[in-house]
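Listing S7. Sequence submitted for prediction.
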Amino acid sequence: MDGLIIAPCHNESESLKKFNDILLDNLKKINSNFEILYLNDGSTDDTQDVIYEICKKNRKINYINFKKNYGKNKILFYTLRYSLDFDFVILIDSDLQHDPIYIKDLVNKFKEGKHDTVIGLRKSYKETKVVKFLKKIYFFFCGLSIDQEHFSDYRLISSKTIKKVVSINIFPPFMRHFLDSLSLRKGFISIDIRDREYGTSNFNVFKLIILGLKSIIYLKFKKKKIISLISFNLLIFIITFFANNIFYYIASTLVSIISFYLITIKILFYKKEIFFYQSSFKKQ
């Protein structure tokens, strides 16, 4: 089997060499052909130089340099479009929180032939009471099981799954929960998430709330019943309010439809073109 390891990087110059050494040591123990792809998400430190140095030493390691920081969700969605030549893709963070030792377990589980995706199931993790509360609200409105909060980004996805992902036109705000919402045969392995050894995360509660709101709307609007219900209520409101004047009724209906489209689709989910200015990835 041919596998691709995709590792997003943003200001990971301190940890990247160590991560790459650990990754290569673990891949030697697995009976599959692997390529590694580092996604430099607009880093402002020496991450790009570290990646160049790593790639020079191994022809199976490649990179894509993005011209600015787009965020992990966008660059993963973009890159998966160029990963269809592989039997499976493994998504892993390069900050050493995802231990490459679990790659062997992900691959062995996938080779059983029963799963479209294999997910790293977090045993435990640290978070504040506020975050726990927000997560409960989020999972309720998304229609996802609260048990899915233990699903991690660290996972293997098959080429069949990738084809499903790339067939959509609007990128999901939260890639992990979009994948979790798909009708897939899911397999699981148990993993530990490490604490960050280097650097600090730039993610905060405010960003989490914004991301959660976008994800809720996205996951709900995929269901036509929800769209129909909202549109119907909106139409009833307009008819009730402007029933005495047909001109206002027509004008308001058009304005409401356009506004509804812009707010829910264009502003929140419009898939802007993502540019990379340099790449050594051969499978494009």
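Caption to Listing S7: primary sequence and predicted structure tokens for the chain studied. The two ends are 19 Å apart (CA to CA). The beta strands are 2-9, 33-41, 61-66, 88-91, 117-122, 151-158, 186-191, 276-279.
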